[in-house]
Amino acid sequence: MSSGIVIGIIGIIILIGLIFAGVNIGIALMAVGFFGYAIVVNSKAAISVLCTVPAAQASSYSMMVVPLFILMGNFAYRARMSEGLYDCCKKWLNRIPGNLACATIVACAGFGAICGSTPATCATMGTIALPEMRKEGYDDKLSTGSVGVGGTLGILIPPSTPMILYAVLTSCSVGAMFAAGVLPGIVLALLCVFTVVFLCKTHEGYAPPTKKVTWKDRFLSLKGLIRVVILFGVVLGGMFTGWFSVAQCSAVGAFLALILMIPGGTFNWKTIVDGLKECVRTFSMTFLIIIGASVFSSFLTVTNIPMTLASSIGGLNVSKYLILVLITLVYLALGMIMDALPMMMLTVPIFYPVIMELGFSPIWFGIYNVLLMCLCSITPPVGICCFVIKGMNKDLSLGTIYRGCLPFIITIFVMIVLLAAIPQIATIIPHLLGMI
What we know:
The protein is an all-alpha fold and 436 residues long. Helix content is 79%, strand content 0%. The chain is globular, with a radius of gyration of 22 Å.
């Protein structure tokens, strides 16, 4: 084993230790990457990497869309589109067992299409759905589980910040990543709805009997979808039809979300400033992580760990799907002790060359990666969605929330197997649109 590989392994161990110690993930990535590069090459080269990486990332075309999509999500949240969306879903799904839980999942999928953030989707829909489900007598495990898994859909259905970050790390097309996420997001949402129905059928008392809703009320509730459909249609429709580039779509989406605050009654100076402040705060954190990940990736490159791992695995006389299972197990183990975004930043530079060596589609692996992030978002003990729900409901124990998420963890596992067995689920739409 070469000295570079040994230094690289030590660097990865130190990085994981820093993350567990509570050091900011961006700073941890940057520090390990810088000092590791200095040891493997020299200090002047390390300083050069640290000087050039921020400018290179700031000038990246893909990076341009990140703050604008974050701003769009912040304005959409403050436009209060989620309330009308949830009301429409619960009325149209009223005859399905566990209709409020099903409506929560579908509404989360819809809100994820204009938000792109797991915690934001979980917090927004949880604020609306959890009190109503508890008032109607839903079991706490079912209500928290549906909100938790619904929140994960925020990053699987485009626009998605992790998809953009994956595209930046791997030089993939952001538009292709967005197109690839549509069908898996819909399929996972449907699987989660089926899970709710199954739980209500097999567990007496999980949900109260359904109530009748008139067709008039159903059609009247459609007005709650108007703003969501407008924003979703213009942004993704414009991008997929070629009317706008991805960067133009992000700008149009942010401006349109701002305008749509007017009919929501929230268009005022304070709301706009709060949205801008939150956008700056979120993007600053994200940009620091991206810079750190780029420096760390440069360090891994000079250690030859990714290339050595890829060539070694490529030379194994075993099925590529067995190797994929092993990679998945690594993700699952890390997901139980790390937050999803740091896990992605740590693993993609290592496993991406391996995936390419095995002949998998980079776009497919991007969706597979995001799906694993969805799983980690509700997996104990570091499931971000579970902590968001706990923060909104102090009287609920984390144990109750985790037990509620357990059936949906199995559902996401089923989706992972489906995506591995039928990769066209992720690739068919970008292929039809000529993006890959």
